[in-house]
Design brief:
Layout: H1 6-53, E1 67-72, E2 77-86, E3 92-104, E4 107-116, E5 121-128, H2 180-204, H3 208-211
Antiparallel strand pairs: 1-2, 2-3, 3-4, 4-5
């Protein structure tokens, strides 16, 4: 080491700097590529879920890009995204709400709730939760049909007193050994329907330019989720 000339030291330093820069560039490229893949996968999942929750509605936009954030206690706080399904005239025919049930047995239960323009539920799905496996996780559509019991419901179906689990005098089943979880979901769905009822006119009046929507219509093969990602 003691025989190294200043030129050799400079050369070694330059080589090390070059390797460091190249390494940083590779890491950045990999990170960008990974983030892009994650974003694409998330969009595909969202499109699939939204298509499922807009039921048989005849929409012609891509709701994944037709979205705004809402802040409201009835929905569980915020900001929480909502997505709009529109017909060929850009009229809102359905909305998918994000909502949070804060009173689950193990904490927040995150929900996606599809509602048509008349306030009828097109479906409810759980997007995230930490409920007890084998008990509370029966709220997942993949584990039981319980969550499908909301399909076609509305504020008046059942009446307000029926929006509880059976143990509390309502029409919705509870799970054996797990009442808190379904009770929390029923409350959150009802609160979301209340929010829609209170804000129906302004929500249905939301225009694509307010949501940053890509207004170009989807190809026919992708309308209502009939795309490769949802098969």
């Amino acid at each position: 080491m003691g025989n190294l000339k200043p030129r050799d030291i400079l050369l070694a330093t330059a080589l090390l700097a070059g390797f460091a820069a190249a390494g940083a560039g590779i890491v950045a490229l990999v990170q960008d590529s990974t983030e892009a893949r994650i974003a694409e996968n998330r969009m595909a999942v969202n499109r699939n879920r939204i298509a499922e929750l807009t039921g048989e509605l005849d929409y012609r936009n891509d709701p994944v890009h037709d979205t705004i954030d809402l802040n409201h206690d009835l929905l569980g706080g915020g900001p929480l995204p909502v997505w709009f399904a529109r017909d060929a005239e850009d009229e809102v025919v359905g909305i998918v709400f994000s909502a949070i049930a804060p009173d689950g047995y193990s904490g927040n239960i995150h929900l996606l709730i599809g509602v048509d323009r008349d306030g009828e539920l097109q479906g409810v799905r759980v997007s995230a939760h930490r409920e007890t496996p084998g008990l509370g996780d029966a709220i997942e559509a993949e584990r039981s049909d319980w969550i499908r019991g909301f399909d076609g419901r509305s504020l008046g179906n059942p009446p307000a007193e029926g929006w509880h689990v059976r143990k509390d005098g309502g029409v919705f089943d509870q799970f054996t050994g797990a009442t808190i979880t379904p009770r929390a979901v029923v409350r959150a769905v009802y609160r979301t329907l209340e929010y829609f009822d209170h804000h129906r006119d302004e929500l249905l009046a939301t225009r694509p330019e307010e949501t940053g929507s890509v207004t170009e219509p989807l190809p026919t093969s992708e309308i209502n989720g009939d795309d490769e990602a949802s098969r």
